[in-house]
Amino acid sequence: MQGAGDPTRAAILHAADAFSSPARLAGRPEEAARAVAEVEHLAVELSTGPRWVGLSPLAGLRLQEARAELRGVLGIPPDAPPQAVIDQLYAASRALRAGDPARAAAALSPAVFPAGGSATLARLAALPPLPRTASATAFAYQEMVRSDSERRFGPARSVPERTPR
Question: How many CB atoms lie within 10 A of CB 86?
Fold first, then answer.
């Protein structure tokens, strides 16, 4: 992610927005490729990254489930290396933004995208509803906001009930 102060925070923000509605990515394979790459990144980073220990461990687990859902839809093998998936999806997204669909298709290697680049781009342009992904990215966003709030203001405290005198 170029220009982002913190690529993981940027990925959380963008992915949560991108997957908030199935219509959000319809016909936009360049943005879908970027959002899928972000989920790949988040599934690894929020599960193993030491910076994110303040988030619920469920965030990483749910993002791993989202990654599995996305890989199933796009035909990405479960054992494909996450960094290869991320790099190729970002390369395809950049090529599409530059108006070069042939270069975008070529960026998606058959080892990682067995259906082929053109078929994968077509799938990215017409993603089905992705309930696990939508839920996981929204949860990661909520956890980031909660963690930020706790860092600023301390943990939320319950207010003791007042008894009438």
Answer: 18
Could you report the per-residue pLDDT of 122-137, keeping only the tens digit for each?
999 999 999 999 999 9
In the block, tokens 């927005």 appear at 17
Residue pair 123/63 in contact (Cβ under 8 Å)? The answer is no
Q: Which of 128, 126, 39 is nearest to 85 (CA)?
A: 39
Q: Are 35 and 136 in contact (CB under 8 A)?
A: no
* C-alpha–C-alpha distance, residues 50 and 68, integer Å: 23
Is residue 83 within 8 A of residue 103, CB to CB? The reply is no
Which long-range contacts link 119-122 to residues 24+ away (Cβ below 8 Å)? 119/75, 120/74, 120/75, 120/92, 121/29, 121/33, 121/92, 121/96, 122/29
Closest alpha carbon to 123 in 78, 70, 84:
70
**Considering only CA atoms, which of 136, 87, 130, 80 is closest in space to residue 108?**
87
What are the residue ranges of helices labelled H in the chain? 7-18, 29-48, 57-74, 82-97, 101-106, 117-125, 131-153
User: pTM score, two decimals?
Assistant: 0.88
